[in-house]
TrEMBL record:
GO cellular component, one term: sarcoglycan complex
Keyword Transmembrane helix: yes
Record localization: Membrane
Domain Sarcoglycan alpha/epsilon second: 132-213
Parts of the chain that traverse the membrane: 295-318
Name assigned to this protein: Dystroglycan-type cadherin-like domain-containing protein
Keyword Transmembrane attributed: yes
Region span, Disordered: 266-285
GO molecular function: calcium ion binding
Superkingdom of origin: Eukaryota
Length: 400
């Protein structure tokens, strides 16, 4: 049957030329169909440990990470993406080429145990192919991109969608991590997944089940963020066998590309000279505005507040201070006397420092009784020790 025309394209691995340990794989991919390839850790592991095959007991399982890029370029081509969840998981190259052409992809594997590296080359040739006219995108909530890329899971999902579409002639066009489309990182709990968008295309028109997505009833049911999640597919349209492959009915979108929009007409070219538009008419100046309220609010009010605060501060500093007489009255008489003695003596010494010709203050005199003011006769010697030592019989060693 013409409708049953085979849409099955196999990625043809044409040659594996091992030159200097660098394997090269060739793929032919039709434009507009999903390409996916699993980078197996075991194959790279055997590149690291060529001898381990000889000793079957000694199987290595090192963490390996992959670095993928277009040859001679820093990054992958726009259409190709790479994902690897963990160094102990396989990596995936996937994407949908939209223009024909050949890309040479360099895959470097780094052994995180020994830091050995090895390289493989992938030559991916995208060949021209008609874009499938009817496409639809589905959201699978309970999946993650690495879990749907293995071919077995892809065919499970495809089988469900084939029954929903009512045709075998169905191809997977794209698979996208929901995080790449603005989804949220799920909580690290069981039962929370990132979600995957799967886009499929067919030559056949949409089935009645799919067309019900366009009905007003569908949009009514699905409006409201919380209700949308619980809406089930209409009766007879629920085809998912494996719960984790079930689609979120409200996030289904149809793309009818069978009537491509006519390209917009080419712009008509003018002479290249602008027409004369008359004289320049400057716009009216805007109405004048009263700035006084703004001035009051921004200048006067803060100024008044500042003045009030400084007056308050001045009052507290100058009028509310405890005076010296008040403090003196509170102080114990003996302590006050002691304090005055120190104070007067300090004054006397200061006075002496500035004027050495005047009479020495009383306190500077030896043997002055501060209570009575009585003076002893000064000693004849001017060699007066500051501390009068007790007379000791063996004081010969003391300096004189
Ligand atoms: C596939 O999905 C990615 C990510 O959303 C997008 O950038 C790309 O254009 C899609 N390709 C096709 C052919 O729809």
């Amino acid at each position: 049957m013409a409708d049953r025309r085979s849409w099955f394209f196999f990625f043809t691995v044409c040659a594996v030329c091992a030159s200097g340990g660098n394997a090269e794989f060739k793929f032919t991919v039709p434009v507009g169909k999903l390409f996916s390839y699993e980078l197996m850790r075991e194959t790279f592991q055997s590149d690291f440990e060529p001898l381990s095959k000889l000793y079957a007991t000694n199987l290595y399982d090192d963490p390996i990470i992959f670095k993928c890029k277009l040859q001679n370029f820093p990054d992958l081509p726009e259409w190709l993406r790479f994902t690897q969840r963990h160094p102990f998981d396989n990596g995936f190259l996937y994407g949908t080429p939209m223009v024909p052409g050949q890309s040479i992809i360099e895959v470097w594997a780094v052994n995180k145990q020994s830091y050995q590296t090895t390289r493989q080359l992938f030559v991916i040739k995208a060949v021209d192919e008609k874009i499938l006219p009817y496409q639809a995108e589905f959201f699978i909530k309970l999946r993650e991109i690495e879990k749907v890329l293995p071919p077995a899971v892809q065919s499970e999902i495809k089988a469900d969608l084939q029954r929903l579409w009512g045709t075998e002639a169905l191809e997977i066009v794209n698979m996208t991590n929901a995080l790449d489309r603005g989804g949220r990182v799920p909580l690290p709990l069981a039962g929370h997944f990132e979600g995957v968008y799967v886009k499929v295309g067919s030559e056949r028109n949409f089935s009645p089940c799919l067309l019900s997505v366009l009905s007003p009833e569908h949009s009514r049911q699905c409006s409201g963020a919380d209700r949308g999640a619980r809406v089930k597919a209409p009766g007879g349209c629920n085809f998912c066998n494996i719960p984790s492959n079930c689609i979120s009915w409200c996030k289904t979108e149809l793309f009818d590309l069978s009537n491509p929009k006519p390209a917009p007409p080419a712009p008509t070219l003018g002479s290249g000279i602008l027409e004369d538009g008359g004289d320049f008419d400057p716009p009216e100046s805007p109405p004048s505005r009263d700035y006084f309220p703004d001035y009051v609010v921004t200048v006067i009010v803060p100024l008044i507040i500042a003045i009030v605060l400084s007056v308050l501060l001045a009052y507290v500093m100058f009028c509310r201070r405890e005076g010296v007489p008040k403090r003196n009255a509170k102080t114990n008489q003996f302590q006050l006397f002691h304090h005055h003695t120190i104070h007067d003596d300090t004054e006397g010494l200061r006075h002496m420092a500035s004027d050495r010709t005047g009479p020495p203050p009383l306190s500077a005199l030896p043997m002055f009784n501060y209570r009575t003011g009585e003076r002893r006769a000064p000693l004849q010697s001017d060699n007066i020790p500051l501390i009068l030592a007790q007379h000791e019989p063996h004081s010969d060693s003391m300096p004189r």
